[in-house]
Amino acid sequence: MAVLGQIRNRPWLLMGIIALAMLAFVVNPDSLEKLFGANPGVLGKVNGEEISKEDFDDQLFILQQQAQQQGQPTSGLEEQAWQMLVQSKLIKQQFEKMGLTLTEEMFWNQLQYDPMFAQNPENFDAKGNFKSQEIKKQIEELKNSGNVEMYNNWLKTRKAIEYRMMARQFFANVSTGITVSKKEAEEMMKQRDQLANIDYVKIDYNAYAQKNPIKVSTKDLEDYIKAHPIMFKRDASRNLGVVYFPAAASATDDAATLAEITKLYSQGSDVSGGKENFQNTANDSMFVALNSDMPFNPQYFSANQLPSGIKDKVAAASPGTTFGPYKEQNFYVVSKLLDKKTSDSTLSKHILIAYKGAERSTATRTQAEAKKIAEDLLAQIKANPAKFAEGLKLSDEPNAVERNGSVGWTTPETPFAPGYLNFLASNAKGSTGIAETPFGYHIINIEDKKSGAMTYKVANLVKAIKASDKTENEVYTKATKFIQQVQGKSFNDFANIAKKNNYQFFNPKEVGRFQGQLPGLGTDKDEEIIAWAFDKKREKGDTDIFTVDGTGDRVIVYLNGVQDAGTADAEAVREQIEPIVMNKLIAKQISDKIAAAKATSLDQIAKLFSTGKQSAQVNLLSPQLAGAMEPKVAGAAFGVAKGKLSNPVEGATGVYVLVKKSETINKQPGDAKQIAQSIASQNAQQFGQALLKSLQDNAKIKDYRIEVYNKAAQQ
Questions:
Q1: Is 363 inside any structural domain?
Q2: What share of the chain is helix, strand, coil (3-state, %, to 5)?
Q3: Do the domain assignments include residue 680?
Q4: In whole angstroms, what is the distance from residue 263 CA to residue 274 CA?
Q5: Crossing angle between the packed helical segments 469-486 and 251-262, to the nearest 10 degrees
Q6: What CATH code is carried by the domain that includes residue 651?
Q7: Looking at the whole model, is its pTM more than 0.85?
Q8: How far is it, in rounded angstroms, from Cα 353 to Cα 668?
Q9: Which of 287, 297, 362, 543 is an S-S bond match for 281, by CB 3.0 to 4.6 Å?
Q10: 675-694 pLDDT, tens per residue?
């Protein structure tokens, strides 16, 4: 038992926080267990190396445990797990190509530098030496303890640590060869100090397009994509049209809710035959429980924690005073001040006995077993209070022994589990007892108490302003009429009809199979809609209607495009690249006009486009011109001979033609060594991510997940 107690106080043995430096990237299909059962499966390949279901499950487990420890949602992590697996495989492959091997000795030597261990001072002795032997011993004890689940968790954690070690070693070895020579630094200084004085004519893209409208065709987009294949490499995606019909409460529904709560407030409930109402009830908690859409909360709150409709009124009110009805967001509320008292700040400590299924728990014991352990331990502590310190070894809270189980000073406003706070509020200094919360059973000792600010106990009767059946039916009728109107129509018709009727319209263009939510929507039907769109039976132009559970909201979806893995569909990325392609088309037209006019001077070109000649000073290292960064123009300024007319330059904001008048030197402080160090620092910051992206862009990555899910859906 002592061994297990020590294990519980070493959170790294329970779960490894996967902080893959430079290996981090988010979303949500159904559980793979439902698809595969106990049979292994291959979800993909990275340069021929398989990603198995087991690999995926382990990575997903670690991410979910991390999210749980941080109080974050544990769903929607599948895509992140996949991306991290792909990157981990790439790093491992490069590590092995370099002839490197992660030996057992290297693992233990490098463990102290891993973030999971390096950031915890408990893993080092007073002299700063890493306690590797002690940690080895703890793992060996865990292995022999019979707790298979916890030991397997450690093995999964170790695998993640090994990937991080390989990543550090790989990046360190490669980055060693990235240096900045004296010659490179001197060239950089030259570019920094050189200035070119130029006269130029600029034909602005936007101004030209206003006078000469240009339409960018799908072929124009496709040609640009073909010229930049890596930039437009895409996973499978879908282009969707989405129209959302929220079943929002009408003004009639609002009035009906107000009438209902007013009746309960001053006239009487139907259950009591009209005799008992919120104002005269003798049992406020029961009346709220029977009639409110939110449960009665017996806690005391500060004025700032109360509903905005009463927080400024309770200080001057006496117990029994009622308030309302008043509106809070989508609710009508009536309130009654039950009591007021100064809040106690309480110093307490606890021992947590968790069980399987409790929040953030990795325990394997049942709830009944946990309760028995807590009751037995409480009896021992009451007989001998010194036993509390010994009992901390059994606590399922990380670092409980080191912190003596203390949670510090708390007040009723502290965001703790209500069961814990209720125990503190109901017991005096020196008390020890058990409180149950969603985290398990807490053996709590109240060490001290002191008075604080005024707090208030309030009964709130709440009625949600909901859409009535009539309103929901109207929404359904409207949605059904719309889907009938667009059946068999083009996507433009779909979008135009939606906009004409002022319906909520969205057009997410590159929806991934595992991204979990649809941009702009965010309902519990998003995953189902995405799965529908990726069904292999689905065709462009298909439509369907979805009902959001619990709200009556309707969602109409139109499949506008199917993008298989490979090069991006031109229309799907039109918004992203159309301005770039349009500028290129404009630049060609301008260049062709200059060539056709056989212009030999800036004055001729300025007259040709009804613009003026300007002067400026440009620099290669900081190529700013008239408020825009124009590196191509700066390059042309230093590339053209003095006094010669340059060729048209396709800049970022327009087409430029220039004449260089002279070059000057503006010597700035600094030497080659300083410049070299600065460049090296910049390179180091950008290197890791750039290298990893390059590896991923050029890898042969096979993703079978969509096929697997489609196959499973047919079974």
A1: yes
A2: 45, 20, 35
A3: no
A4: 9
A5: 160
A6: 3.10.50
A7: no
A8: 67
A9: 287
A10: 777 777 777 777 777 888 88
